[in-house]
Amino acid sequence: MSPDAQEPVLTDDVTPSFDLTTQPWLPVLLRDGVEKDLSLTEVFERADDVRRVPGDLPTQEFALVRLLLAVLYDALDGGPPTREAWAELWQAGPEGFPAEQVVAYLSEHRERFDLLHPERPFFQVADLRTAKDEVFSLDRIVADVPNNDRFLTMRAHGAQRLSFAEAARWVVHTHAWDVSGIKTGAVGDPRLKAGKVYPQGVGSAGMLGGVLAEGDTLRETLLLNLIPREDDDLLRHDDEDLPVWRRPQPHGAAPLPEPEAGPYGPRGLYTWPARRVRLHHDGREAYGVVLAYGDPLPYRNMHGCEPMTGWRRSAQQEKKLRTSPVYLPRTHDPARAAWRGLASLITGYPPEAAQSAAGRGAAQGLTPRVLEWLGRMAEESDALGRDHLLGVRVLGCEYGTQQSVVADVVDDSLSLSVALLSQQGSRLRDTAVRAVQLAETAVWLLGNLAAGLAEAAGAEQATPRAEARDRGFGELEGPFLRWLAALRSGADTGERLESWRRTAYDRVRALGTELVESAGEAAWEGRVRPTAKGGTYWLNSASVERGFHTELRRRVLAPEDDGPPPGPAGDAPPPSRPEEPTP
């Protein structure tokens, strides 16, 4: 970008302005591979030329796409009225995308998108201040500045100054993903105690296991996540639902009363002012910030407003509130690849909850409503087609130390046919979930093999087991994603499952052979080990390998044994996270 692209626009009275509708600030990856920054207006005008809005972090991309969705929802007065209207938008291609309608909307509300507006700066509070008029480092809103660990980062000296384009992105990200912890209080906040406000929770998306339906272009991605008003059983569309820039009064330091704040639907939720922010600048760049808590967001039972996460029932909250059911967002585990959590995405509950879900009234979990809606469209409309290949992106944050720091960021994806999401796709879903269970079983046995070899050599077992499992899942990930993408409507599910059995068996068996060959002489010689009944037996690499091959054949290849891997006493632990017994 040219240097003058970041210059603020000066009005006649020399008041600085940075108009997000006309100034380039959104980082995009075009279909031809070129990266550049576009304004809000340009992003919608070129939505079919844009592949993604990558952002500075994956979580920033999630926040920016939700911002774009809020604009689109509001420009369309809450979204397409019916599925037929949505189908027309989808089938019309680039020419049918309502870019002109969105551009007119942005022009109408242009003043509300000025990052430096003297009275209503975008996503900020103009007069936000602390009792001592402190101005803090921009590190407070820049999430990729490591906490007390500035090695291997592009910001080893912190975020001292930011262009207005970059500052705008981090302001949006802050409302969505900011950490919790004790914060300096702002004058006028009734929660203020001795100059501080005690933890009020993370940003509006911080407790979500974010799920984004992705298409080949930004136009497709926005439409895939745009649920029509007709489907109000999946997503609430109230007349009171407004994005933050259309609220009648500017925010002050104090939070709005919960009934007044909402949320009433996706427009308000996707632009939820979870923080109070004020950028300090010199007319050319931002150099400091005041950051305080904003409106708290109640996460309980918000599945009618928040379609971009899965949900789980919380027995603890049900007991505490004496009501049932109570659903909380289902978060992502950074240690687990997206494909291993497939059951939660397409059925609403992990495999281990399947039996407990039966006969208990309310479901134990809910799929992300955006995926449920796409399954409904695949079943009831020809617009998508039953075998449309959908990209599913999972994004999220793992927080540490009482949610006061970002410990890890989740960013993973997979592709699947929308047929798996439809009501008629239960056999496909069962096949896909069973395939994940088979992979878990095979890798569980591989971990046992590594631990058994270590025990035979008289070595520590935990590390070899963990390393073998990591390698096993890594070896199976690529083949599984290709297998899943090819699982379409009309497929012979038995044949497809058998194909995956053989793939998982062959790949894990080959890894097992490598482990045995590299085990060393000590494992080959082995050692005497006690039995549970007071006897002894000889444990060496040959006996461990023999047991591995026997169990791998029986539990992965045997079609009549489709149960999850057994636990230490013959019990069946959860297939999504099996416990490994000592060999």
TrEMBL record:
Residues 245-264, 555-583 are annotated as: Disordered. Gene3D superfamilies: 1.10.132.100. Residues 250-264 have a biased composition (Low complexity). Residues 564-576 have a biased composition (Pro residues). Coiled coil: none annotated. Pfam families: CRISPR_Cse1. InterPro entries: CRISPR-assoc_prot_Cse1. It comes from the Bacteria. NCBIfam families: casA_cse1. This is Type I-E CRISPR-associated protein Cse1/CasA. The lineage of its organism: Bacteria, Bacillati, Actinomycetota, Actinomycetes, Kitasatosporales.
